[in-house]
């Protein structure tokens, strides 16, 4: 799915929605949503930068590096490579070469329900990329026959069902993945909440009565 897709159900063009989500504090979305939050065991292990993009999915049924490579060359600018390891949390499908390839395709980041390797390369300020995974390992995928993966199918990542074209958001707090319409429905409220927060924090720090500042029911 291209990042220049047609407007979603809230009337926002896909590109405009992504741009607005780049400016929203991700925990603010947690005030408005109850679904789409990936298991907290999946955490940021790559470059410390916000990840915002459109899901390009891979269900990896075997530790098949060739299937991963085929998904890499199909990536489009602005996409997030989303890899479902199908319960395999021992083989790392992502490392230095993979990240370099993802960057070369202009993609926005990588999300893996599993482990990754070459963590120093993933976090490199010049060559790294936002990568979210469960941990690290020295055991990697192998050059098999390429039939161990299914591209652009719905996948399960940390308890969240992610379809190709869903929006994937990640930062130091965690990962959110939802269809564009679900995020478009709450982005304005999140923007208003973010805009109001600095003044609320100022008043709390200034010692104002919390009973007048906090919602108490």
List the SSEs and their pairings.
Blueprint: H1 14-23, H2 26-29, E1 43-44, E2 51-60, H3 65-73, E3 79-84, H4 96-104, E4 109-113, E5 115-116, H5 119-122, E6 131-133, E7 135-136, E8 149-151, E9 155-157, E10 160-162, E11 167-171, E12 174-178, H6 180-184, H7 187-205, H8 210-213
Question: How would you summarize what this structure contains?
Answer:
With 217 residues, the chain is an alpha/beta fold. It has helices at 14-23, 26-29, 65-73, 96-104, 119-122, 180-184, 187-205, 210-213; strands at 43-44, 51-60, 79-84, 109-113, 115-116, 131-133, 135-136, 149-151, 155-157, 160-162, 167-171, 174-178. The chain is elongated and about 65 Å long.
Keywords:
Glucose Oxidase, domain 1; 217 residues; alpha/beta; eight-stranded mixed beta sheet; disordered N terminus; two-stranded parallel ribbon; elongated
Secondary-structure-based class equals alpha/beta
What radius of gyration results from the CA coordinates? 18 Å
Q: Characterize the quaternary organization of these chains.
A: single chain
State the major sheet: 8 strands, mixed
Please name the CATH topology.
Answer: Glucose Oxidase, domain 1
Secondary structure tally: strands = 12
What's the order of the H and E elements?
HHEEHEHEEHEEEEEEEHHH
For the record, the CATH class is Alpha Beta
End-to-end gap: 43 Å
CATH architecture grouping: 3-Layer(bba) Sandwich
Fraction of residues in β-strands: 15-25%
Please tell me the total number of domains: 1
